[in-house]
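Lecture 7 notes. Example A: sequence first, then its structure tokens.
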Amino acid sequence: MSRRVVVTGMGVISPVGNNLESFWRNLTEGKCGIGFITRFDTADFKAKVAAEVKDFDPLLYFEKSEVRKTDLYTQYAMGAAVQAMNQSGLENHIDPRRLGVYIGSGIGGMETYTAECEKLFKQGPRRVSPFFVPMMISNIAAGSVAIRYHAQGPCLPMVTACATSSNTIGEAFRAIKHGYADAILAGGSEATINPLAIAGFTNCMALSLSEDPLHSSIPFDKRRDGFVMGEGAAVLVLEEHTHAKERGADILGEIVGYGNTCDAYHITAPHPEAAGASQAIREAIREAGMEKAERIYINAHGTSTPLNDKAETLAIKLALGEKSKNVMVSSTKSMTGHMLGAAGAIEAIACIMALREGILPPTIGYREPDPECDLDIIPNRARKARVELALSNSFGFGGHNATLAFVPYKE
């Protein structure tokens, strides 16, 4: 059995907007969500900038008594999930046994982890919160959303680093396609702008050390020196096509393909020959049945690290051959920073909006071309263009590669 899978709701908590409308407006206007870190004193830190979520109010999504029992990453996830469900109109229109939740996180409740470690070291074991474990674990966002919506179907959070929420969406797509659920809330969430995470990523030479927020996340630019930490959440409601049609849902787009591979090469570096990444792209296109597509947009993983952007360029060329000369590519991480486990989902939403609106978001901050990254990366300004296929790439530490394929919805 093979069934069509459509998108009927989308929710966003991001450095460039805490709802779908503001996120998309700021993305197409090329607004940068990166600034100097405000969460802690960075005097002793080499990395000074991050893409923080601004003006987030958890009380929009939780009772006051619940907020202190939930990590920030779960709060972000719930915010995005509630928005997505509200847009979809799905609540109370589905058998709860056929509703699933696939919301992952690359790291989980790191805010809680660091705070409780400090309590342990300074005040002793009796002061560690009884909520420490359920607040910290990286499946609790999915579990909390499932409880909120009584989703008794498959609940499967992923942990594949930066590929996390592309994998959650892809696996949810497959579960619905093959009949295991009728709808799944799929996405990811992350909240790791704290001293420990910034120090750790800095010391493994992953973060940008630029002190110019507007030119710190500069994917495919020759000056790039690392990624910028981002945070937030994104959730999509994926739904079986007939189920959505019969209840009169507003269908936003269609997911048609998914590629999932591993480099099996290095714990952090991408494979220099891009074999796994290019295969993920090929698999997504093949499952979509879009091998003959000519008007293609790719939302690149595009982290602004020297090795990643070079390897991704090669992957796109290997997967698309001569078509790569005409494919339109952008990295929205130039505006959102790298949202880690939430990156794939936020970029999937960017793809769906690009298909719907005929506007392709730009790669901002681009100034100095790199001959090893010689794709059409839509520099600095959004571009009006109607495309027939949108791909979203996500490549994570551990060699995880995931590509999602979307097309405009047609009955």
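Example B, a different protein, same format:
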Amino acid sequence: MNPTGLLEVTAVRRPTPRTVRVTFTGAEGWEAWPDQQLKLLFPPPGRPVRLPAGDDDVMRWYQAFLAIPEDERPVMRSYTVRGRDRGTIDVDFVLHAGGTDGPATAWARTAAPGDVLGRYGPDAAYRRPVPKADAVLLAGDETALPAIATLLSEVDNAVVFVEVPDAAEEQPLPVHWLHRDGAAHGSRLLEAVRGASLGPGSAAWLAGEAGMVRALRRHLVAERGLDKGAIEFTGYWRRALTQDDAPTPEDLADAREKLGG
């Protein structure tokens, strides 16, 4: 599969008030796996997508991406494939309440059939292992739902907690729903995980807001005795920061831990 290419919108719908589900064509021949991530490239307003030259080497591809003039260079964001069907994929965009829309959210609010985005991946080199243990905890906020939905097809002994803004954001999935209803982001989730029945030999998969994921991981390791190697974790987004902002010391510590340093 060419690592870079174009995706065209064929359908847009709202499974919940704050979720935009976009169906793209252009995924023919893709290998499928759970929690499959890819980079979406959003063009500057009023411009077509400009792609760097295709290259199987990710670093050469990224250097070619950076060489595109800044006023023509797409904005790159990571997303998870929510579903697939005969050469199409679904991607869910979460519309966060309040604040200023980033380029991906702004695009999703007005997405329509015929719109085109670029993509890099999915790349099997970034495939995350499916947790294996007697009990597996899957925990995240609304941004983790696409990945959790695909993991549920592979994990049959999962304890699943998902925190969403309110009852209207629930989707038809076999999970324990937690409603923030104005509470601090992640507080309901941490409370639920604290009360969950998990033995020291359990495994965990965590995703969502970075600070929330960090708090969950610390609890599981320091208070529940889970081995660090049994926890897969990813901070999808950072409160008050974007992917373009510099990493914080906490972000760098997380990256070192994921690399085993």
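Note on Example B: The chain has two domains: 4-124, 136-258. The helical segments are 58-67, 103-109, 145-151, 187-195, 210-223, 249-258.
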